[in-house]
Amino acid sequence: MNLEIINDDHLLPAEREDWIRKLVEFAAAKLELPAETEMSISLITDDKIREINREYRDKDRVTDVISFAIEDDEADEWPNFRELEDELDIPRNIGDLFIAPGHVAEQAKTYEHSFDREFGYTVVHGFLHLNGYDHIEPADEQVMIKLQEEILDAYGLKR
User: Fold this and answer.
1) Does 125 show up as a binding residue in the annotation?
2) Is 100 in contact with 46 (CB distance < 8 Å)?
3) Predicted structure pTM score
4) Which of 5, 8, 67, 99 is deepest in the core (most CB within 10 A)?
């Protein structure tokens, strides 16, 4: 997995970046993604994620994670990226996650989870969105949440 982590404001210690990388690589192996698959995770403030949420999702509130999947089915005006990747022999890029560690810490307290469990949940949840999983329909939610829990449990981040 070719993962770029952007932590310019040092919202998490540098060693946490290795933890994130290992979790994403573990989840990518579970989904059997090619090793050269690309994505990014930007760690941002609550104010910045609220701004992004307002601008792109019309929701004026802080959230834990926002995912921008490159292969989103709703973007009909975009080219077929999988075909282009194959044609040009370039790695697949699944998209970008924006995560607000401050909000994740608040949620950990609210749900009485450790920060590791809540942050892991957030990373895996967003990662699954980048890979086409969703939870809008109950049947899709069941599939996504089951896979999410399998990954977290296998990684050692049990409830």
Assistant:
1) yes
2) yes
3) 0.91
4) 99
